Each structure stands twice: as structure tokens, then as C-alpha cells.
Amino acid sequence: QQVKIRARPRLPAPDYVNGETHLFFGRPYILQVLETTGRPRVEFSADQSIILHVRPNSTKDERQKLLNAWYRRQLQAVIPAYLQKWQKEIGVTVQEWGIRKMKTKWGSCNIQARRIWLNLELAKKSPRCLEYIIVHEMIHLLERYHNDRFYGYLTKYLPGWKEIKKELNSSL
């Protein structure tokens, strides 16, 4: 699985400069970088842009950190509704969840702690990809292994999961 993930095509590494395209919930947005003496922040514009308000001479790492913090807040705002919906539907309870930067996985589940972790990069994918990963990880609370029973549950609760998985693992 890790070999497959590393082998798939990727977008060029961003430099966090004006005019770059950055994805947010599956849609491309143009990055605008505005220098400010105020507090660094991210603004989402209805005209298809993400605006980074940064200090003069900010570094690429500082801009990346600012945008990633914004992505994290966006995920934190939408995940609870998915959890509430699917806990009722599947009949399981997630005790704890979190978001982290993962290199080779979209999510993980600690069955004993009933905790799921979601990859920060999901903020760049469509909402249906985020929902698929949440459902996938929650089904691990019913079945630990990726076996016929697991995929039976996945098909029962999310019949179009194979198509969503293909979208999730595409380069964009």
C-alpha cells in the first residue's frame, strides 16, 4: 500500500506564493499572498481564492504552517457532523478523534481507545472523500481487518465507496 501511495503522481511542491493553485475540499483556488503588519491569517474569498495575510519576508515554512493551521480548523468544523451522522447510522461510538499530518495513510483507528485519526491532507480532497475515510475508520470499530466482513459493511453503509476511493487516490 505504501509503495502504491508513493508511486502515484503528485502535484509539484508548493512555494506558497501568489498565483499558485491550492486545493480546498476538492476544488482549486488561487493563492494570494498579502503582506501585513497585523496578525498573520488566512481568508477564504468567494472569488475562488485563498488569501494569506503574512508578515513581510515570511518564509515558505511560515506560510505553509499558516495554511495548514487553517486547513485543520476547516476540518475540525465539519468532522463532528459526519461523526454524529455515521455513529447513528453504523451504531458505533467514537470516543476521540484528531487530525494529523500522515505520509502514507488517510486515516487510522485505535479500536481499544475508540479513537480515529484523520490525515490533514483530507482538507484538500472533496467532502465525499473525507466522509469515506471517516466511515472506513468507524467500520473498523465493527471489524478490525480488511476482510470480506469489513467490505460488506462498507458496501452496506457507503455503496459507492469504490468510486470514492479512486477519487481519493487520484493525484488531484
Task: Tell me the helix content.
Answer: 25-40%
Query: Within the largest sheet, what's the order of strands?
Result: 1-2-4-3
Count every helix, treating DSSP H or I runs of 4 or more residues as helices. Answer: 5
N- and C-termini, Cα separation: 19 Å
- Determine the structural class based on helices, strands and strand pairing: alpha/beta
Q: List how many beta strands DSSP finds.
A: 7
Describe what this molecule looks like in 3D.
The chain has 172 residues and is α/β, with parallel strands linked by helices. The protein has 5 helices and 7 strands; from the N terminus they run H-E-E-E-E-H-E-E-E-H-H-H. It has helices at residues 2-7, 60-90, 127-139, 148-157, 161-168; strands at 21-24, 27-35, 41-45, 49-54, 96-100, 107-110, 115-119. The strands form 2 sheets. Strands 1-2-4-3 form a 4-stranded mixed beta sheet, covered by helices on one side. Helix 2 (60-90) packs across helix 3. The longest helix has 31 residues, at 60-90. It is elongated. The model has no long low-confidence stretch (mean pLDDT 93).
